[in-house]
Amino acid sequence: MRSWKNHVRGELQQRDQTEKLPFIGVFTSLSQMEERFEFRKTCLDDVQSKSLDRGGREVGKDTRLLHLQLRESEHLAEKLSQTVSDLTTVLYLKEAELQYWQSRVSHFRQEALSLAKGSNTMKATLSEFEYTVECQSKELAALRTEQKGINQALEQACREKEELLQRWMEEKREEADRLNKYNAAQERWQRFAKQLKKHLHNARTKEFVPIVTSSWCGEAEMPTSVIQRINNTYRGHSEHNHV
Amino acid sequence: MADDKDVLRDVWFGRIPTCFLLNQDEVTEREAEPYYLLLPRVSYLTLVTDKVKKHFHKVIRTDDAEEMWFEYEGTPLKWHYPIGVLFDLHASNTVLPWSITVHFKNFPERDLLHCPSHSVIEAHFMSSIKEADALKHKSQVVNDMQKKDHKQLWMGLQNDKFDQFWAMNRKLMEYPTEDGGFRFIPFRIYQHSLHTFIATFLLCFVPVSAVCSYCSDTRSLSSPTLSDRPFIQKQFRPVSPEGHVHTLGDLLKEVYPVALPNEGGPKRFQVVIHGIEPLLETPLQWLSEHLSHPDSFLHICVIPVPSD
Q1: Which residue of B has its CA nearest to A35?
Q2: Residue limits of the Autophagy protein ATG5 UblA domain (chain B) (predicted)?
């Protein structure tokens, strides 16, 4: 029970303990006694006035007492009938209230039934969704595993590709070196050939003069020393190249 | 819906023991004895004091008697305020029974409304109910009622019939479930007399002797209540637009923050409804359904904390 509600209940009871309960007995008794006194006074006055009306003879004390008792009984009977009437009214009101609350109970029962039905439907739907979620979770896990494998294969392929690329690069580097060496050798041969040609040309030029001189004598003939020098030079370059 | 019926019954059957004394200035044929009565907190003075009038009419000269009116320690008691509100506002710390002085002369025209018959009380009561329903339901519920239903409300109050009254009043306490409460809460906040408020405020700063001197000087002033504004009444929802349930503390913070103690400071005022101090966290909707007076208003009294 909520504390603020309990607090109000407790305070109201405390208030009545202070303000109402100590006085209700005395005040109620006083009020009833005053009411009875007033009533008896009225009855007595009435009886006395009636007795005087009947020719001035005063009625005896017992008769007055009987009159008073009769009137008081009538008054009490009237009050009782009023109380009965009030209680009957209260009874009707309670019955009407009971019908009202019964109709509200019925209404809330209907509402509870429809809510329970709706709740069951939603529970079934919920379990279906839970099953679907579970299946999809499993699928997802399988797909993730597959993806992991594929990623690993991809990594492997990338590594192999990288290795191949490195090897190819290495091969190309070696081929380039070979080509460079071949080109360098070619260049040297060409330079050598050029030198030889130059030498030959120079030798021919030098020998031509003596040949030209000897030709004045006869056939043109290269001196033997020049030919040996040319052959030695050629042999030396070719051995050098083959190394 | 007002489901806590025990609280409803305790509120309805609250009583204040009262002793009615005839004013000494009244001319009497013999000595007037006091009249004792248990007054219903939820009713009105002029509705329940026919016996008082009859009692004192026996001793005074009826030729000289004017309209009966009541006073407590010099303050005329407004009959159109519920009896419990008058007691909490003026005499909550007094020794019981509450002593009220009865007058038959010098009616205070400036302070009190005339009440020549019970039909005036009925008109005032029904007017309050309609005003409250205008705030709660845009008058839809009270307008849907038949005249006999209105009569049942009045007769229930007049004859002190709890079941008869609530058989009809429960309709005025219903609301659509999706709304979470009434449209606005019908409430009125009453403050104690102005000079008492000032005296309480001054006690925080000046000696008691100076305050007593002030009180004796100002007590002769007329209109002891705030004449321009006898009570505070504003539109206030039981639930905020965000769905936050408003409490009594929220209401006071919004419309009358003086009533709340400062943080860490002493408590200066009591917030009293039907003679009790509900906790500030009590939901306002529940208070309106269960602690309203029969006129559907939540009458809240803010009084200084007793010094003793």
Answers
A1: B51
A2: 11-104
Q: Which chain A residues have a beta carbon less than 8 Å from that of B276?
A: 8, 11-12, 14-15
Q: How far is CA A111 from CA A118, B95, B248, in A?
A: 10, 53, 33
Mean per-residue pLDDT over chain B, rounded: 87
Q: Do B17 and A20 touch (CB under 8 A)?
A: yes
pLDDT digits (tens, 9 = 90+) for B264-277: 888 889 999 999 99
Distance CA B193, CA B172 (A): 33
Residues 77-106 of B with CB under 8 A from A: 96-97
| Encoded amino acid at A239, one letter | E
pLDDT at B224 > cutoff 50: no
3-class secondary-structure state, position A30:
helix
Q: ∠ CA(A112), CA(A117), CA(A121), 5° rounding?
A: 145
Is residue B56 within 8 A of residue B32, CB to CB? The reply is yes
| Short-list B194, B207, B185, B187, CA closest to B258 | B194
For residue A118, give Cα distances in angstroms to A122, A123, A129, A155. Answer: 6, 8, 16, 53
Considering CB atoms only, which of B10, B97, B163 is closest to A12? B10
Beta carbon pairs, A and B, within 8 Å:
85
What are B76's strand-pairing partners?
B71
Distance from CA of A136 to the nearest CA of B (A): 38
Sheet with B187-191: list strands edge to edge. B231-232, B187-191, B298-304, B269-272
Question: Facing residues of B101 across strands?
Answer: B21, B71
Q: Cα separation of B156 and B125, whole Å?
A: 12
> How many other CB atoms are found less than 10 A from the CB of residue B79?
23
B9: chain A residues, CB-CB within 8 Å: none
ipTM of the complex: 0.86
B contacts of A30 (beta carbons < 8 Å): 36
Q: Is the sign of the CA dihedral A88, A98, B7, B129 positive or negative?
A: negative
Q: What is the DSSP letter of B179?
A: G
B33 touches chain A (CB under 8 A): no
DSSP 8-state symbol, B300:
E
> Which of B276, B305, B280 has its CA nearest to residue B87?
B276
Is A150 an interface residue toward B (CB < 8 Å)? no
CA distance linking residue A199 with residue A230, whole number of Å: 8
Q: What is the pTM of this model?
A: 0.69
Whether omega for the bond prior to residue B238 falls within 30 degrees of 0, making it cis, is no
Per-residue pLDDT tens digits for B50-91: 999 999 998 887 777 789 999 999 999 999 999 999 999 999
d(CA A177, CA B262): 95
Q: How many CB atoms lie within 10 A of CB A150?
A: 10
Dist. CA B56–CA B45, nearest whole Å: 16
Which H/E stretch holds residue A133? Answer: helix A61-215
